[in-house]
Amino acid sequence: ASHWDAGGDAQQALAWEFRGAEQARLAGLFDRAQQTWQRVAARSDDTALRLRAKLNLADDLLHSNMPAGRQTLLAVLELVHTVPDGQARLHIEGRCLAALLDNAVFAGEPRQAQVHAERLTLLVQHLPTGDRLRALEALVEWAMRQSDTGLATHGVEQMRLLGPSHPATMSLHAQVRTAA
Q: Which member of 14, 20, 100, 150 has the lowest number of beta carbons within 10 Å of its beta carbon?
């Protein structure tokens, strides 16, 4: 990032800083990642990059300040239509809806969960594999809360096709088999 910044391309530097923040999060450097995403969200001219930074901030906020995290997710969702690239738009919308659905399910807000589940269901088959797995995980959790074992089983089977050894797949598979 510093190479691009020194070369006068601040926007390219922000894209590399974003990637560095993802690595920082994986290394447990949460404060550093959040500071970087705040900077990217405030300064990037790239709508998709700016919204991805806000989405990552929202993910972290959900662990410490659930209402603020939810508000950030809703703000991102309101702006997702401004992302010009279709794949980037799908990625952001899918992640955002999955997080909102997950949040509503565990907050005990069935009406909100239903709204997000319906919208996410329309997108799920168009999402890239990693995003599809996360979306299916949220949809299966919702189906289980609704005691819809048929829908939960169908979702888990889709997850098993995409990522049979993914921890969420294995966990939900065991839960659905136990509930059936």
A: 150
